[in-house]
Amino acid sequence: MIFILDHLDDIEALAPALKGRTDRSRIVAAGHSMGGHTASLLLGASFTDSDSGEVHSFHEPRITTGLLLASSGNGGADLSDFAYQNLTFFRHPSFAEMKTKTLVVLGDKDDSQYLTKRGADWRADSYTHSPGPKDLLTLVGGEHWLGGISGYDAVETTDESPERVAVVQRMTVAWLRGALGDGDAWGEACEALEGLKGLATVQSK
Fold it and tell me: What number of H helices and E strands is found in the chain?
């Protein structure tokens, strides 16, 4: 993504229909699962190399807003034995400097035992352990694919639910609109969600 941002002028030159239409003050990094982990690094999270002790940060200040769906959490003793041994970049993360405005989305049944010894709350660490402004959307009954965001009938979806996908779609779009300065769409969506008990909850800081 940094490469893309570095070459926006070149991209506009190759695609004249885009020229003058890219708003470089409103750039979002978004991702699901490992894509969320990658996006969190662009938003200010970092990790410490367990061998050298070197801290790696890929924070990109041109990115003003973040959306993390079912992203990874803390390392150390929170990791499963498999993850600690094989996914060394998960061992020592830090969200302390992830100051970019971000919405974190997770399912409260996302029990990723192959990655963590904790439960679904592990997926909330990027919200819990980072400074605000942040919002947290927790989907009741949601598993890792959040109802099927890659296609609710896709083979990897374990919690097939078009209704849950619709909640993810509408709430994330509303949040992005609000975060990018397009009125109070997020506030309105949260009010609507309160009238739909049992689908999701929202926290903010």
Answer: 7, 8
For 59, the 3-state DSSP assignment is coil
* Rounded Cα–Cα distance for residues 163 and 181 (Å): 27
Query: Rounded to whole angstroms, how far apart are CA atoms 199 and 204?
Result: 17
155-174 confidence digits (pLDDT tens): 788 888 999 999 999 999 99
- Distance in Å from the first CA to the final CA of the chain: 27
Measure CA 160 to chain center: 20
Using left for φ > 0, alpha for ψ between -120 and 50, and beta otherwise, residue 138 falls in beta
Q: Which element (helix H / strand E) includes 39?
A: helix 34-43
Pull the structure tokens for residue 58: 């890929």
**66, 59 in Cβ contact below 8 A?**
no
Distance CA 203, CA 136 (A): 5
Domains and CATH numbers, the chain: 25-204 (3.40.50)
